Task: inverse folding
C-alpha cells in the first residue's frame, strides 16, 4: 500500500499542510515508531545545509537509511553554494540528481525560490523564519503524552524566533491554545501572528504576553529555546538580562498544570533559558522529543516520496 498522500509536495512552512494532513503524518510516525508499519522508499535525499546541525542532519540521514534510501551531505563548504552559485541554478541542477532535498539556510525566501525552480519535494530544515520539522516532532511528543492535541495549551517562553513561529502555526492547526511570552522587543513576526490568529479563529486561543507567569497558567506544555539563535551569539551577553525573567525553572513550572511537560528543541544553554533541574526533572520529555525528530521525519519523507508500506 502506498503512503503517497503528500507525494511531490514541499514542506516549507508548518502551514503548508492541513490539520488532516498533519494528523495523518503523526499517525504514520507513531505506527512506524511502534513497528506496526514498515515503509520502503529507496530514494536519494540531499542535505543542503548552510548552518551547523546535530539533530536535523543525523535524524534525516538515519530516516532515509531506514527507509532503504541514501543521503548526500551537501553542506555549503563542499559545493559551489559557498562560492555564490545562484539558488535558481543550484535548484535546477540538483533536482536532476536527487529525489528530495532538505535545506537549512538563513532567508525563508531562499527555500521558496529553490522550491519554485526544483520539481522535487523541498523541505525546510530551518530558516530564520520557521523550523517546521522540529514542530512535527514536538506535536508527536505531545500527542504521545496526552493522547490528543486539541484543547491543550502550549506556553512558549523566550525569543519570538523560528521555532516559536512554527509552533504557533502548528498548535493553531491542531486546535491547541498557544501562549507566547517574550520581552517586548523580541515578539514573534507580525505576519506569523496574523496567520496564526486566522487559523485558530474560534477553535483555540492565541495569547501574546510579556508576563511569563500569565503564559504558563493553565499550560500543559512549557517550551523554550536558546535566547540567541545561530548567528546571533554575539548578542547573547546583551540578551541575558532581558530574557532572565523567561527562564524555565522549577518556580515557573509549578505555576503550570500539575501534569505539564517541558520541551526544548535543543541545543540548550543550561542555566540560561532552562535550568538543569528542569531539563533533568521528571516533567522533561526533551530526549523523547529529540528522538521523535527521526520518527516524524521518516513519516514525512515516506509521504512526500510515496513510500510503500507493509
Ligand atoms: N533542534 C535542532 O534543529 O537541532 P540541530 O540544530 O542540532 O539540528
Result:
Amino acid at each position: 500500500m502506498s503512503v503517497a498522500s503528500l507525494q511531490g509536495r514541499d514542506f516549507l512552512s508548518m502551514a503548508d499542510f492541513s490539520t488532516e494532513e498533519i494528523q495523518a503524518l503523526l499517525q504514520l510516525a507513531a505506527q512506524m515508531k511502534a513497528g506496526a508499519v514498515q515503509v520502503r522508499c529507496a530514494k536519494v535525499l540531499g542535505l543542503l545545509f548552510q548552518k551547523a546541525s546535530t539533530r536535523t542532519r543525523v535524524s534525516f540521514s538515519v530516516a532515509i537509511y531506514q527507509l532503504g534510501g541514501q543521503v548526500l551531505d551537501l553542506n555549503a563548504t563542499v559545493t559551489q553554494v559557498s562560492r555564490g552559485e545562484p539558488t535558481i541554478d543550484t535548484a535546477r541542477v540538483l533536482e536532476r540528481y536527487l529525489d528530495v532535498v532538505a535545506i537549512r539556510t538563513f532567508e525563508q525566501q531562499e527555500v521558496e525560490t529553490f522550491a519554485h525552480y526544483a520539481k522535487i519535494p523541498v523541505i525546510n530544515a530551518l530558516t530564520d523564519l520557521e523550523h517546521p520539522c522540529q514542530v512535527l516532532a514536538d506535536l508527536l511528543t505531545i500527542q504521545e503524552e496526552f493522547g490528543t492535541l486539541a484543547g491543550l495549551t502550549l506556553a512558549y517562553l523566550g525569543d519570538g524566533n523560528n521555532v516559536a513561529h512554527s509552533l504557533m502555526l502548528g498548535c493553531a492547526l491542531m486546535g491547541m491554545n498557544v501562549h507566547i511570552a517574550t520581552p517586548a522587543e523580541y515578539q514573534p513576526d507580525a505576519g506569523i501572528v496574523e496567520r496564526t490568529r486566522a487559523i485558530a479563529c474560534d477553535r483555540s486561543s492565541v495569547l501574546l504576553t510579556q508576563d511569563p507567569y500569565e503564559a504558563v497558567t493553565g499550560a500543559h506544555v512549557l517550551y523554550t529555546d536558546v535566547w540567541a539563535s545561530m548567528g546571533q551569539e554575539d548578542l547573547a551577553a546583551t540578551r541575558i538580562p532581558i530574557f532572565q525573567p523567561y527562564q524555565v525553572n522549577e518556580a515557573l513550572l509549578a505555576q503550570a498544570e500539575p501534569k505539564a511537560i517541558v520541551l526544548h528543541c535543543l541545543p540548550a544553554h543550561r542555566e540560561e533559558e532552562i535550568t538543569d533541574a528542569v531539563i533533568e526533572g521528571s516533567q522533561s520529555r526533551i530526549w523523547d522529543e529529540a528522538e521523535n525528530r527521526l520518527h516524524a521525519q521518516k513519516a514525512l519523507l515516506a509521504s512526500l516520496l510515496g513510500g510503500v508500506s507493509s
Q: What stands out?
A: Residues 286-305 form the longest helix (20 residues).
